[in-house]
Write a structure and sequence with these properties.
It contains 1 helix and 3 strands; from the N terminus they run E-H-E-E. The protein has 53 residues and is α+β, with helices and mostly antiparallel strands. It is elongated, with a radius of gyration of 14 Å. The model has no long low-confidence stretch (mean pLDDT 79).
Length: 53
Amino acid sequence: MSTIKSSATKKTMIITGVNQEIYPLFEVITNKKNKDMMILNSFGAVITQPMAA
């Protein structure tokens, strides 16, 4: 029988309208790894990028 290990890492969602070149700064600002963040690019009230890498 196999054992499943899960991590209880809190994720962070960032909705922003800033330029993608400063996305690496979010890691420093939030003190989270890139894999624990979802960055959505928004212009006004419309989310133009539904998922981030």
